[in-house]
Design goal:
Blueprint (H helix, E strand, L loop, with lengths): L36 H7 L13 H11 L6 E3 L8 H11 L7 E3 L18 E3 L19 E3 L21 E3 L11 H8 L5 E2 L2 E2 L8 H8 L5
Parallel strand pairs: 1-2, 2-3, 3-4, 4-5, 5-6
Antiparallel strand pairs: 6-7
């Protein structure tokens, strides 16, 4: 049996009539749009086509204003279940409009590459539980202060120095393969001189000790 919400399965909140809620007033919106007519045909759901109406340029402009993503300061776009190409395209379209967002959560979205996205004001970004394999695949975040990358697939620390001149203070890399690299903490702190906390642990004296001192402490003397 179809649920009452089935008729709205391909609608965004801005397609529902008689409300004046704007995008910057939402905390956890669903960003997907319905599939194309060709996609619906191959899914065997062409019966939904008759429910659609032609959208005029004026209506498209009104929808853009209602979305109002440009004025979002905090936004949670986690758990979007981006299983189809049209969903991912719409997701990235919205990310490109977040020119004023300061805090953004994108957890568990199966993301692999956001290097074409720029978030000029973002200070806090959480992309835990995605599929990033390199720091080069992250969006451009020049003002980042707190970055969480836990449970991705980042193999090496290559590219981490791109954040050297950023105000990054806190970084979480828990449960990434790079965490098992020899001298992991020392390498991270040497690449990021402004960093104060790594994986929830503040910077310790041994994290910034010179290489010769580290070797000295590893020597075992037997009398």
């Amino acid at each position: 049996f179809k649920l009452p919400s089935d008729s709205f399965k391909y609608l965004g909140w801005c397609d529902i009539e008689k409300h004046d809620v704007r995008g910057n007033q939402l905390h956890c919106p669903r960003v997907r749009e319905g599939p194309s007519e060709e996609e619906l045909f191959f899914r065997g759901e062409e019966h939904t086509l008759k429910k659609r109406k032609q959208v005029t340029d004026t209506e498209k402009w009104q929808k853009k204003l209602q979305e109002n993503w440009e004025n979002c300061a905090e936004l949670n776009l986690s758990f979007q279940d981006l299983g189809d190409l049209y969903q991912m395209e719409n997701f990235k379209r919205i990310l490109q409009r977040l020119i004023r967002v300061e805090k953004l959560w994108l957890m568990d979205n199966s993301l692999t590459d956001l290097s074409a996205i720029r978030l000029p004001r973002c200070r806090e970004l959480n992309v835990n539980k995605n599929h990033f394999t390199s720091f080069k695949q992250l969006p451009k975040i020049p003002q980042i202060q707190h970055l969480s990358l836990a449970e991705n697939n980042i193999m090496t620390l290559s590219g981490i120095s791109d954040f050297r001149h950023s105000p990054l203070e806190s970084l979480i890399l828990k449960r990434n393969p790079c965490e098992f690299q020899e001298r992991y903490r020392q390498l991270v702190f040497s690449s990021l001189p402004n960093l104060k906390m790594l994986d929830g642990i503040p910077k310790l004296p041994e994290d910034c000790s010179p290489p010769d001192i580290r070797v000295f402490f590893k020597v075992c003397t037997i009398l």
